[in-house]
Amino acid sequence: MKVGRFKQWAAGIAAMALPVLAFAQAADPKRWQLNMGKGVTAQSVNAYEAHMLALWICVVIGILVFGAMAVAMFKFRHSKGAVPDKDFTHSTRLEIIWTVVPVVLLVAMAFPATSKLIKMYDTRNAEMTVKVTGYQWMWKYEYLGENVAFTSRLDRKSDEIRQSKAIPDAAQNPHYLLDVDNVLVLPTETKIRFVITADDVIHAWWVPALGWKQDAIPGIVNEAWTDIKEPGIYRGQCAELCGKDHGFMPIVVKAVPKAEYQQWLASEKAKNAPAPAPAPAAPAEPAAAPAEQPQPEGTTPNTEAVAAVAVAG
Ligand SMILES: [Cu+2]
């Protein structure tokens, strides 16, 4: 019995300690992950650091408050002969302390958080821009100025499993509902600006490893930026309930080194380039020009202009 009670306590304490022990994890969220991920961009690391600062401040406050309660309850209990102080009204010194300390803590957290937030919204000096448009239920990506654009929707495999109503096997399909047909290829070590909008209802573009999510709203263009440090595949999802297939419009970002990105971009451009014009045929014999007809005075002899209008029409 006593061993059982001890095990219960140990399990309880371990469960409480887990959020503190769970340090930054891999780029993409994992099953049963408790702490937020550190991500792969400067912004995501900023967000992680602001979060950890707040978390540790909360941990210290929690230990102090619950520790004081525990001391009060165990040391000054009735069975030990403690007598309540019925004349106690207030202590000016204590009131000053518990007003000033939280204010100092809030300011200490607000300063780094605000400066990081301002950086997050500074999309200046971006080296390239990708326009993201949300649709029910897929994403469209346009590499502005590059003549490269495509849509990205749930991959066929996930869709088949979904339609079959079979229970998906996580081991066999680790990226069930998190794969797409066309991934968004981006260069690493590049400041990339996103302009994000939607064509029907509100969606939200969210890749946790990049450290932010941004609403995609019809008629409004929102901005965001990223600078991915590590090559890799980062997955995300629509983060705004947008209709019946909201859960089936994942996002896959493939970050590759700059040179590889340039190769990919060139191959995409080649796909989109208009078919080369056929080789010019041998010039045909010019038709015999009709004999000049004398034009009556005042009429328009400009047959070229008439022909041009006819072609244009
Ligand atoms: Cu959506």
Task: Give a structural overview.
With 313 residues, the protein is of the alpha+beta class. It has two domains: 2-80 and 92-120, Helix Hairpins, CATH 1.10.287; 128-272, Sandwich (Immunoglobulin-like), CATH 2.60.40.420. Helices cover 37% and strands 19% of the residues. The protein is built from six helices and ten strands, in the order H-H-H-E-E-E-H-E-E-E-E-E-E-E-H-H. Strands 3-2-1-5-8 form a five-stranded mixed beta sheet. Strand 6 (203-207) and strand 7 form a beta hairpin. Helix 2 packs antiparallel against helix 3 (92-120). The longest helix has 34 residues, at 42-75. The chain is elongated and about 110 Å long. Mean pLDDT is 83; it is low at 18-25 and 287-313. Bound molecules: copper (II) ion. The site of copper (II) ion has 7 residues, from loops. Copper (II) ion is lined by residues 134, 203, 238, 240, 242, 246, 249. Residues 270-304 are annotated as: Disordered. It is found in: Cell membrane; Membrane. Residues 125-267 form the Cytochrome oxidase subunit II copper A binding domain. The chain crosses the membrane at residues 50-74, 95-114. Residues 1-26 form the signal peptide.
